[in-house]
Amino acid sequence: MTNGGFNGEGVYAIYRFEMARALRTLWQSLVTPVITTALYFVVFGAAIGSRMTDMDGISFGAFIVPGLTLLSVFMQSIFNASFGIYFPKFTGTIYELLSAPISSLETVLAYVGAAVTKSMVLALVTLATATLFVDVRVEHPLLMLMFLFLITTAFCLLGFVIGIWAQNFEQLQIIPMLIVTPLTFLGGAFYSISALAEPWRTVTLFNPVVYLISGFRWTFFGVADVPVWASVAVMLAIIAACLTAIIWVFRTGYRLKQ
Amino acid sequence: MTDAILSIRGLRKAYASGTEALKAVDLDIRRGEIFALLGPNGAGKTTLINIVCGIVTPSGGTVLVDGKDHLEDYRHARSRIGLVPQELTTDAFESVLSTVTFSRGLFGKRRDPAKIETLLKRLSLWDKRKAKMMELSGGMKRRVMIAKALSHEPDILFLDEPTAGVDVELRRDMWDIVRKLKSDGTTIILTTHYIEEAEEMADRVGVISRGELIAAEDKHVLMQKLGRKTLKLTLAEPMAEIPGELAEWNLELEDEGHILCYRFDTNAEKTGVPSLLRRVSDLGIGFKDLSTRQSSLEDIFVGLVHEERAK
Where are the transmembrane segments (chain A) (predicted)? Predict the structure, then answer.
């Protein structure tokens, strides 16, 4: 490595380490979340989906696929990225990272990069599984991948921040369980918010997850609850907020250094 | 000092709790030496090491690694330093080979399986390369941590309590490893509780107490400068009290008057030993045996720390 240059070897070492960890825990990191989501597809898509009315002209079974996939992606992105940085803090092996010639940007790139890779794989496997049970079409495949990439990046960055903030295993679970899950269920994963009566419709618009699900669903079916540009703006805003928090953490050493 | 590979000036650390762990420490480490940092628990040894390695943020002062600031030029500084921390913290599920390879990459060095192989063989770890960290004994884990710290071929190696909780045989083993490293030109800074260890291995010794560096000298100079000798005369007949003629030597009686004890400074121009012996024979005091003992680094250390505490 040349002095002052980019520590590519370091980024690669962490990336490989994180991917190896995922492969070791394949059941937990991939199989279990895919099966859990597939159960929703079976129940709401194949079993009772036919009794539900169509949403925005889309069969109910297909309508819920993007939202449910995102629910799983949100959870796994946060768990993966937070655990990646929390665990070294917990075991003490973080000493090595802190004493290494690696910048904060490189550290984030490596940990979040690995988490994003895992979440993208999870999302694609989940979507592929969905096609076994319900009839899904993707109108804008490239945009779908792009949305997925931005969403996973946003939630992996959020997970990284949570991992640094958390001081015990319970705190790792609080935000995904108590905030992200309710926001997703109430954010239009199972319904179009146009179906809501006022004032709930307006209240729902304050939920950022609405914009993520709406935009992602738009790439599938071409229908959205909110303008697509607003979805993109919310994704970028989440990414920017998390990056700001991370830069601050590394500048001050908050919960990393004494 | 021109040949300092590590130059510490006015280094301070006050923790958020208000504890002043370091109070303006100045220290130069010479290229290629083994420097032992001694001090009681909580004296600031680990804080000092952790600041230099980038794990703890200093409250003030500067650290130059080969002339470059360790914060401004952190890549330069850190790529030249290896750290073996006190605690045996390892990734339980990783194999020896993968964890050492990981460390080399993390420190920005190109993958080099041949170098890793040489390193593992040298630390007698090659046979265990496929073992998971959690399957290893404490001594083996310590070796792996040394291998990790050396994987990027650093010039400076910090060993924080390398032999804490290690049995005698392994400790000797560790000493051999450290000596080998020194012969390769690695500068080694170690902290230890075992003064025997510093006495055995170090070129220079620093004593730290309550966040202050109270001595940093060549080991032999320190032992000579602060060392004292004790002359003991085993008397033929026990003595009830010291005769007035011997008052000027400040003697002490030990073992119920069987042993006459004289403590003297090895540096003094006149130790007073010949004149004492002459006076003793003039007085007709018979003795069966005579012995002298040089105070160890341990005595010096205890003396220094006590002196510091008394202030």
Answer: 26-48, 60-88, 108-130, 142-166, 172-193, 205-223, 229-250
pLDDT digits (tens, 9 = 90+) for B261-277: 888 876 667 778 888 88
* Domains delineated in chain B: 4-224 (3.40.50.300), 228-294 (3.30.70)
Distance CA(B46)–CA(B53), nearest Å, equals 10
Nearest CB to A3 within list B55, B75, B104: B75
Is A2 within a domain?
A: no
What would the mean pLDDT of B4-17 be, rounded to a whole number?
93
Query: Which residues in chain B are contacts of A20 at CB distance < 8 A?
Result: 98
Whole-angstrom Cα distance, residue B50 to residue B54?
Answer: 6
Residue A258 lies in a domain: no
**Six-digit token pair at A42?**
């079976």
Q: Which long-range contacts (CB under 8 A, 24 or more apart) does A222-227 make?
A: A222/A139, A222/A140, A223/A56, A223/A57, A223/A58, A225/A188, A225/A192, A225/A193, A225/A194
Which among A17, A21, A100 has CB closest to B107? A100
Cβ burial, residue B63 (10 Å; 0-12/13-18/19+): buried
The complex's ipTM works out to 0.88
- The number of domains in chain A is 1
* 8 Å CB contact of A13 and B79: no
Residue with tokens 């990336």: A15
Determine how β-strand B156-160 pairs with β-strand B187-192. parallel
Residues from chain A contacting residue B153 (CB–CB below 8 Å): none
CB contact under 8 A, B54 and A10: no
Nearest alpha-carbon partner for A81 in A204, A215, A194, A239 = A239
| Predicted pLDDT of residue A2 | 43
Partner-chain contact A258 B16, CB within 8 Å:
yes
Contact B91, B103 (CB under 8 A): no
